Known about the structure:
The protein is an all-alpha fold.
Amino acid sequence: TIAQQQAVAIAPKFTAAASAISSSIMIFLILGRGKEKNTYHRLVLGMSLSDLLASIAWFFTTWPIPRGTPDVFGAVGNQQTCSAQAFF
């Protein structure tokens, strides 16, 4: 149904935004430690950077899909945006 398509398109925006904000906070906290970083902090920094990139890609879920694609709510992209999303 239309309501289900809207829910599937909109719900990931909230969770991805929360994840991106949390990952950004972790990145700033670790980078602000100066020279006190050990292996644990470097690993968490790497995971937070990876999660930030994945969260940004997840936030855009339906937007890059080409406009006019049947049964996809919120599709406003074109073939280039679809290919870029697939790359990430």
